[in-house]
User: Fold these one by one.
Assistant:
Number 1:
Amino acid sequence: MKTPRYHCAACGRVHRADRPLWRCDCGGHLNLAPGGGFRRREIVATDASLWRYAAALALRGPPRISLGEGWTPLLRRSWRRAEIHFKLESQMPTGSFKDRGTAVMLNHLIEVGVGPIHEDSSGNAGASIATYAAAAGLPCRIYVPAAAPRAKLVQIAASGADPRPISGTRQDATEAALAAAGKSFYASHNWQPFFIEGTKTLAFELWEQLGFRVPGNILVPTGYGSNILGLERGFDELERGGEITARPRLFAVQAANCAALAAAWAAGENRFVPFAARPTIADGIATPRPIRIAEILAALRRSKGGVVTVSEEEIAPALASLGRTGLFVEPTAATAGAALTQLLSDGTITAAQTTVVVLTGHGLKAADRTGELLGMGGG
Ligand SMILES: [Zn+2]
């Protein structure tokens, strides 16, 4: 395949994706050039992982490392008398949706000769990258907020990576990782474009699992927006391949206490708007400053979807309702259930439409906090 190219969103410079790169020399973030069309006949139906869509991925060859990521269950459950499809991204090898992006990003970086890596994360991406780095034999260091759920820190440590808990906010962990760039490669899932190349396979999977049909609505807990951007990219490629003509409405779900997208959306802006961030139990989407905020907002507008915010008080009931249908998820993922209740109640979504709720992280990721949410007290 031809060497893929990155475009800098700030200065417009084009870079060949033939070496480890996480941003432009000017400091701007990079986006992969649009992919070609993807067609049904290119699916490797015998492969029960995201690699069934390998023909659509901008990689040079077959994966050097895989832990069986992708091809997660899509289950139907009744929610407020509507039949809803729940996509269990929580059932990935490391228990969160991040493995789609991590697997494709690390395989690209290995192809172009990466050495030791580091990353910053609220927890799930760190656990994912630490685990895949272990599988690939790459030395790895992860900067995480010291207040991240313990299970996520334990997961990072168990992979043999070097966890660096940082006091302060999620942004402080990012600053620590930025400061370390140069000592090792900053394999940032929020900066490196191949992470979104991986999350685009979510679009292919939903389309295939729904009988090669596009759903009407997709709800996604959203911080840095890699699932929204992956869905946009994936459905683009299906449209370019002539497989679909309609597009789903994409709804980004945010915790009201930390809602950068909602602030920009409410102001009618397509760029970052300052807002006051407060703590939230939905630690996985507590993102004060999304890097690709303009691209996310554009994708939501194009899809005719929007941004939904949920209060802290709405998260525990949604988590309990999901649990009672057999879906055990972490509080961050439960925000999507709370948003679904809102959108069904106000008529934005109706029972006649096909709706997918993406459950992004497993309940075991934050069992202690979930116990507190459910009123179980200290263990
Ligand atoms: Zn640039």
Number 2:
Amino acid sequence: MNPLYHQSQFVLSASKLSEAPTDQGKEVAFAGRSNAGKSSAINTLTRQNSLARISKTPGRTQLLNFFQIDEQRMFVDLPGYGYAKVPLAVKKKWHQMMESYLHKRDALCGIVLVMDIRHPLTEFDMQMIEWCEHTQLPLHILLTKSDKLNYGAAKNMMFKVQKELSELNASVTLQLFSSLKKSGIDDVHEILDHWFEIEEN
Ligand SMILES: Nc1nc2c(ncn2[C@@H]2O[C@H](COP(=O)(O)OP(=O)(O)OP(=O)(O)O)[C@@H](O)[C@H]2O)c(=O)[nH]1
Ligand SMILES: [Mg+2]
């Protein structure tokens, strides 16, 4: 793993795009259903236990959380979608914020879509996939919590998801991942290094 990722630091939480850090350098956003494991994945990939948990206080879940890797690179923990108990007004605000972030953020160079392996390809996941196809934004899928299934079942699920995506002609990459078991990390880093233009060391 490139040691660069270990230095990541929390920058700020934004409730709207105008509060985000300056739009420069390169940024990779983590998207996915609420509870899918986005924040855990960021912690696992930066080898820090509580980096993304900073924002994990109730009521702050609708924020864009920015983490700086170095001066030119950032991770963004996007607010989770599909949380049933959220009132309609909050859902609308979420839509607006996501839309403006995805459309306007020039630094955005790739999306990591985090899906619980037991609940892949939700309606919102599909929207995100279609959106990335439409805008030609690179997308990499983590089928996380793979520790919840045995290896054979996890592999089968991956092939199933791959097949569905190929039927859509979606040019995305996907892999198994587990924050609990710390598995799949090297594969994600390979993708991130490429998106961030980080030289191998
Ligand atoms: N077994 C297992 N549990 C995981 C894994 N990743 C995350 N979890 C658990 O799943 C729950 C949700 O994880 P988070 O990382 O907070 O999920 P999130 O997508 O950031 O959720 P929101 O911030 O609400 O959108 C927590 O209880 C985690 O401990 C994993 O790889 N394996
Ligand atoms: Mg989170």
